[in-house]
Amino acid sequence: MAFELQTATWILIADWTIRIAALFWIPVRSPPAAARSWLLLVGFVPLLGLPLYLAFGQPWVSKQRRERQANASRVIAERQQPLVKLRWVPHDDAIADDIARLGERIGDFMPMPGNAVALLDDYDASLKSLLDDIASARSEVHLLYYLMFDDAIGHAVADALRAAAGRGVHCRVLLDDVGAKRGLRAFAKPLRAAGVEVQAMLAGGLAWRRSARMDLRNHRKLAVIDRRIGYTGSQNLAEATFVPGHPNREVVIRVQGPVVAQLGALFASDWYIETGITLAMPEHPPEIAGGTPAQLLPSGPAYPFANARNMVIALAQRARKRLVLATPYFVPDDATLDALEIAALSGIEVQLILSKSNNQHLTAWAQDSYIDTLLAAGVRIALYRPHFLHAKHLTVDDEIALVGSINLDIRSFALNAELGLLCYDHEVVAQLRRIEADYLADADIIDIDQWRKRPAWERSLAGIARLADSFL
């Protein structure tokens, strides 16, 4: 009996010691919203909350990775200096000028004119285009993807890479160690045997301790072929039905022109961060291929600022007529939510397009908790029905489009390495608006009165899930 009483006393002391320590420790090291969530968890379950916070509480990145990111940013800035005279300068357009300068300051890359841009909205056609370009490669193929599956698409990409390597093409592949686990397991060894360099990013398992917090991921999708053709967007190297019951709909952007060099530089940056090896970069001026000014915006926890979040907020703040956002996951931080509300309350048409189906149940529940507030502010919200809408893009007025891998959630803003391509072109915006209109034609528009008639248990579930927004 005395032993049991002594054990209970020590557990009680440990509980309260953890609670008090957390009160002084967590708010200093986490943003307010995240701190509240962690303090709530630690307060309720101290002995569980403490180890979870130590593992997941901060977007920790190793000193080596941060130093390599800083070195890569410095090299990118130095390499761009000879191109300053070619930098695109908007004429009488304060919105584009502000956004371009912000993107260059936080994401390293300057806006460059002369790009040819094609938006690919057909899942199979975009993958066929990529495979055709790899089949036509003569010197170099670089692929960086979050997810590669051991399915028909994964095998087709692996076969194309082996064939290219057999022709003497230098092929390199970067794959996220967790997202592409199946692809790495199936293809890494045979690809290396064929002469393809394959590198995993952000090692999973016990190896994570050497690089970053274990759930940080490289979520980017990009391809560079012969330093002439580039791809980015939301599409992974997998069949559309890789998540059963949720066939994906995507948007991919195929580019030619100066921005391809930026995609190549970002690949070289990630290759250097993972391996310490510096890749050779072209010394000649970029090829002019079209008339679209464009600019790459990378984001991730190794950068000093929250690049993706800051850009989304800036775009929302500078919209004057219409702002359309498409995302599969909508769990914003307070600043992003406020920016959308203020835009709508200012009389700007704000249209948010989400997916009616969702493969992340907790995220979907948390997402529901934001809808009432946005509807009350005048934001229009549509739920796309036919597929899982995995595309991630937004348009501002008729001026700017942002397409890439960036979700409108805290994970994408703070924990993932992401990539967006800013296009300053009326025609690109018009093309994306046609895609957005196609979404809306097959979507359910949420009515605020009907939304507020949801059962009380659904509202409670959404509110509880929202408490975990910083973990999602």
Q: Can you characterise this structure?
A:
With 472 residues, the protein is of the alpha/beta class. The protein contains 16 helices and 20 strands. The strands form three sheets. The protein has a 16-stranded mixed beta sheet that branches. Helix 10 packs parallel to helix 11.
Keywords:
21% strand, alpha/beta, 16 helices, 472 residues, 16-stranded mixed beta sheet
- Could you give a short account of the major beta sheet? 16 strands, mixed
Cα-based radius of gyration, to the nearest Å: 23 Å
Stretches where pLDDT falls below 50 for ≥5 residues? none
Q: Report the helical percentage.
A: 40-55%
Shape: globular
The chain-level structural class is alpha/beta
Give the amount of beta strand, in percent: 15-25%
Mean pLDDT across the residues is 90
End-to-end Cα distance, whole Å, is 44 Å
Give me the count of strands.
20
Q: What oligomeric assembly is this protein in?
A: single chain
